[in-house]
Amino acid sequence: MSGPSDFQPTNPALKWIERRLPIMGLMHSSFVAYPTPRNLNYWWTFGAILSLMLGVQILTGVILAMHYTPHADLAFKSVELIVRDVNYGWLLRNIHASGASMFFFAVYIHMFRGLYYGSYKEPREVLWILGVIIYLLMMATGFMGYVLPWGQMSFWGATVITNLFSAVPYFGESIVTLLWGGYAVGNPTLNRFFSLHYLLPFVIAGVVVLHIWALHVAGQNNPAGVEPKTEKDTVPFTPYATMKDMFGVSCFLLFYAWFIFYMPNYLGDAENYIPANPAVTPAHIVPEWYYLPFYAILRSIPNKLAGVVAMFGAIIVLVFLPWLDSAKTRSSKYRPLAKQFFWMFVVVCIGLGYLGAQPPEGIYVIVGRILTILYFAYFLILLPLLSRIEKPRPVPNSIADDVLAKSGGKAAPMVSTVIALMVAGGLLLGGAESARAAEGSAKPPAQKWSFSGPFGKFDRGAMQRGLKVYKEVCASCHGLSFVAFRNLAETGGPGYSVAQAAAFASEYKVKDGPNDQGEMFERPGRPADYFPSPFPNEQAARVANGGAFPPDLSLITKARSYGRGFPMFLIDFFTQYQEQGPDYVMALLQGYEDKPPAGFNLPEGSYYNTYFPGHAIKMPKPLNDGQVTYDDGSPATVEQYSKDVTTFLMWAAEPHMEARKQLGLQVFVFLILLTVLLYFTKKKVWANAH
Predict the structure, then answer these.
(1) Is 349 annotated as a binding residue?
(2) Which end of the chain is more exposed for a tag (fewer CB within 10 A), N or C?
(3) Which of 109, 105, 110, 103 is nearest to 57 (CA)?
(4) Is the pLDDT of residue 690 over 80?
């Protein structure tokens, strides 16, 4: 249904090309003169948003792949070096990682819009089926991408999900072995997933082209659900739909930028800042939020094979939706019963998402089974039944009548619906966070940090004092392997000069070699060197610490967290509070008790800590009053030591935090101005269209 094109290039070279390959005429007919229903609302802008997000994910993914090393021993480190050492690597990583969540957020709205307005009905069945195929490819791509950082949740998520294929009769074990490339998740698995994660976005792009082609053949659906009859029913795609899409995209970019610059870890998992360890299983293995409803369906069925069939069936059933719902009226706007049941279905999906983040026990399992039944009942029983018994309200004769008379009742206001979705998402994500929270430990008190908030900056004095505490107390057991001595003199760091950083490095002995005689030797540290580990290997560290392995502190403030639950999880989004890691580390350092509570059985060789999960920690109390002397006269107390060293470790985990927030402010000012300009431009363009 491309529009008539009168495109005639004037340039001789363009004329020559157009006669032989009329691509410019095709673009003009498809994206300029293409007739668009004049009653489209802002829910239709998510198609443009998804096109943008696909391009962003492919572009950032290609650049990140240039620096990524798909090897089990190097993948985690390569991701951290991208963030720390590649120019604007932190920005690329944040755009790509947050972009995955934004992509799914937009696609879910796009799909629910299609469900509500009946965009799957004749003659758009192929358009809908292609959309479901894109969704399946997105899920596969997202899962494989989540594995690539090779953190704890990446590794164990891959282990759990790939194991599901073992439920397939006869061929299950062979499929799992093929996916793993061996008999356990390891380096071959990582290589397979990296290759497929790189390839599948281009496959998605190809199917998207077919999706858009099918859209242009069948024409766009609209809120009224009636086909265009005259020229009064449509407007040219450009400038009308183009301007509305641009305004919608700019609003979405504001939402997206909030995560990129101010909340980059809000949707992630702290466990993924811990290198993958096959010997240590996380307390809760929870997938990314966009998989949670299907994860709940999987776990609600006790039989493994039946659970896998139900999980995939929950997606495949969407393919048959055009035939399950045979109602003649497309839009739920004119179907009172269908509208009510649609919103109930949305509640069911959100409820499944919440349950997918909870432990599979007790009431959660029972409610999960009920919601699973309701999910399938909506498609297999309710929609076929409604198409036979429901009496829809009269639909307008034309799109023009719908615009002029505003018949069919009010649509759900865009802003209020988005707010409702955010609250629901907060409930879902808050439940996920609660499930990942440490068990059996008190919640650390929230602290006031100089680096919190949109304008937060590191306290240079606290960082320098914290470095001293680390060197004199922590460095005997804990490494700082991702921090180089040169970082101490970089912008946003503790504020040392290049000469001071070099002098600090020279105080360390670094193992180097081999020399001309083929032997390893020790030399004074250089600014380019990284902080050396206090132990040559993990086994030596365990022997020296009674079997415990002291973690590297480079990422400790991001690798530790605690659940604040709902509604605090939602409030944190607006206040930009993301300092659960520093809160936990500071509380842990002060949480030692000389005597455990009555009835608590403290294992031999352990110490009681109020905030440590399980309370029994192998590390003895590291800090005491007067242990470290401060040159600036700051109090030599455990509380001060704890806050200072935590501030330093927060910088060690996010050395580009200040640059991120400064750039974020500039981006927000630009996007706000752009959004305002686009709004008034769009309003002027559409002034005569209504």
Answers:
(1) no
(2) C
(3) 103
(4) no
What is the extent of the structural domain holding 482?
A: 460-663
Q: Binding residue per annotation — 568?
A: no
Q: How many domains in the chain?
A: 4
8 within domain boundaries: yes
- pLDDT tens-place string over residues 522-562: 999 999 999 999 999 999 999 998 888 999 999 999 999 88
Cβ contacts of 262 within 8 Å, gap of 6 or more: 454, 576, 661, 664
Q: Is residue 251 annotated as involved in ligand binding?
A: no
Residue pair 110/46 in contact (Cβ under 8 Å)? The answer is: yes
Kindly tell me if the per-residue pLDDT of 433 is higher than 60. Answer: no
- Phi/psi for 545 (5° steps) reads -125, 35
What is the residue whose two structure tokens read 């290997």?
537
Alpha carbon distances (Å) from 13 to 24, 25, 115, 152, 501:
12, 15, 46, 57, 60
**637 domain residue, yes or no:** yes
Q: Which residue has the tokens 């949740």?
A: 153
- Nearest partner of 437 among 551, 564, 287, judged by Cα: 564
Q: Are residues 656 and 584 in the same domain?
A: yes
- The amino acid present at 334, given as its one-letter code, is Y
Co-location of 466 and 540 in the same domain: yes
Span 635-659, mean pLDDT? Answer: 97
Query: Is pLDDT of 588 > 50?
Result: yes
Pair (209, 73) in one structural domain: yes
Strand, helix or coil at 607? strand
> How far apart (Å, rounded) are the C-alpha atoms in residues 312 and 322?
18
Looking at residue 34, what DSSP letter applies? Answer: -
For all residues of the chain together, what is the average pLDDT? 91
Residue-wise pLDDT for 110-149, tens only, equals 999 999 999 999 999 999 999 999 999 999 999 999 999 9
Q: How far is CA 121 from CA 216, 261, 397, 439, in A?
A: 15, 41, 18, 48
Which H or E run includes 194? helix 187-218
